[in-house]
Amino acid sequence: MVLLRLLTFTLLSSYFHPGTEVDAQRQFTIRSIMLTIEPGTNVTRDTNVTVRCKATVSSSSQEALSCEYTIYKDSSTVYTKRSSTAEDLLYPLPNAKVSNSGKYKCKITIEGKEMTSEATKLTVTGMSKPVLQLNRNAVSEGEEVTAWCEAPGETGSIFFYLYEDSKVIQEHSNSNPMEAKIRFRNVGLHKVHCAYAVLVMPNTFNSVESNTITVSVKELSIRPVLEIFPQDKVYEGDQLSITCNIRNALYSPENTPIDLYLSLGTKLLSSGKNKVNHTMVALAKDPGDFECRLEKGHVEKVITKMVSVTELFSSPTLTMNPADVFKGEVMSLTCKSESYASERINKEELTYTLEPSVSPLISTKPGEFSVKALTFDFNYTCEAQAKGIKKRSETLTVRPKVPVSIPKISVVGRAILGKPVKIRCHSDFGSFPINYTLLTGDDILSTSTVRLPTQEAVFTVTINKPEEIRKYMCKAQNNPKNGLPSSRLNATLIEPLRGLTLTVLPDLTEISEGNQLYLICGTKGTPPVTYKFYRVGDKRPLLTNTLNENNTHYHVDKLSKEHSGTYYCEADNHANNVVRSEKVIVEVHMALWKKAVIGGVCLLVVSVLVAVCVLYIKSKRGRETYSPPATQAPCV
């Protein structure tokens, strides 16, 4: 019974405690785990810090359990230890630094079962002051200085910054101390200091600035010399002689080569070791200053001079006259320099040429050329020349205009008598702008200017008489010299319907049963015409018909009394005006044979009645004239 109870307790314990391990010898459960930081979570630099991990485990056996402890800092493993004692795990952080700041967690693992504590944040404040050292504090131009910057006692991800006169000149990482090589470009005194930053994701902690060291940079005695002759009153075409050499070259160490570079703007003219000579023709268009550059190792020295060059003559301009020219027309091209140095050249010394030299080409006087416009776009330039100096004009593109073609005149939509009509005038080709003029006879009605292919000339007029439509025409013009007329307007003028009548055949007095009936609807106006016949009381028309005629009819082949009624017709055409006729009352009379039968029957009846009456009268009279003999009584 005791054994049964023990087995039941073991099974229930395993069911209700998932952290419990059950085997034939022992059972255990991890009840809790907690991480603490001593002496506290906020400490100053160089404090001895201890991370304590305390786990509570319940076991059915006195035998020690084998536990594995893992310490995490910001999700990274920093310490692991296996222990078989019940003592707390201690992770020491002696002389804590800023790099030790972060979130710490502890995990315990026993025979495949594990539990992790909540995270606890440690913050360490305070950073050591960086120390800067230089191997020398007095150098000459181009010499190298070695600098060391140290963050005493700091660990972790460290970034160093080296400053010259408050400007960062170098950056280094993950090396404590940091070593760097410095060269100073300018002579004089330079103040150097350093600083560092410790990266503790996601934060960065910055140190104070280090000590400052002043470095004296002495200028080398060698200098570049730039000489230009002539330097004043220089005109285009003058010969310039430029020399770039060295002053105090004897004081330079022999083992250090010296290079010289002579430049004009960004163009390198010449280079050499001790002296550079260069000659050139002065041009006003040359940009920038002359520069003599000396390079000795890492030392650079530069001297510049500017030479003001006066234009011998200005760049020519090429113009055309007239501004608009049509294909095949003669035009004048003028090439001219607006200014020239009269103290150096005469106006007659300037010569002009046209490029390309098209044929035929006529030059009436210097700089003026007469040419015929081509049938396509063409580019011209001209060149002015004097004393070996040549200057070209900007390109002039001549775009010959295309004469306008004979315009076409047409109606937009439909032309309806008495209503506004739109008339379009259009040419198939011709250069814009094109002026279109609408005329009636010799009278100008209106003018429209078309400047784009998407535009068109449309005029609105009102035509009151049919014969007026043939009088309209238009004229197109894109050249002041001439304008082309169109043909006269040839379009159908729609006359609105009028005078609609409804005629009845036969005559209304002669309409009788069995006869045929014709309702004739006629009107005046432009066909096609749509006719509709109606009888009052019917919603739908009796007949709808569209014809190219001014009349139509509705036919009833055999009349009956049911055809009696009131009739009318409607008509419309492309003028969209509906006209209606007067109403006509049609009464269908009885047929003649029916009348004759009725008359004959009536006569027969009358005859029979008369005969009966006569016979009756005669019979009555006969009884009155006849008396039978008297009867005698017998004797008694």
Automatic annotation (TrEMBL):
Source organism: Solea senegalensis
Record-given protein name: Platelet endothelial cell adhesion molecule-like isoform X6
Signal sequence, start to end: 1-24
Keywords associated with the record: Disulfide bond, Glycoprotein, Membrane, Signal, Transmembrane, Transmembrane helix
Gene Ontology BP term (one): cell-cell adhesion via plasma-membrane adhesion molecules
A Gene Ontology molecular function term of the record: transmembrane signaling receptor activity
Gene Ontology CC entries for this record: external side of plasma membrane
InterPro entries: Ig-like_dom, Ig_Fc_receptor, Ig_sub, Ig_sub2, IL-40-like_Ig
Lineage per the UniProt record: Eukaryota, Metazoa, Chordata, Craniata, Vertebrata
Highest rank taxon of the organism: Eukaryota
Ranges that cross the membrane: 596-617
Pfam families: Ig_2, Ig_C17orf99
Domain Ig-like: 224-308, 316-397, 496-586
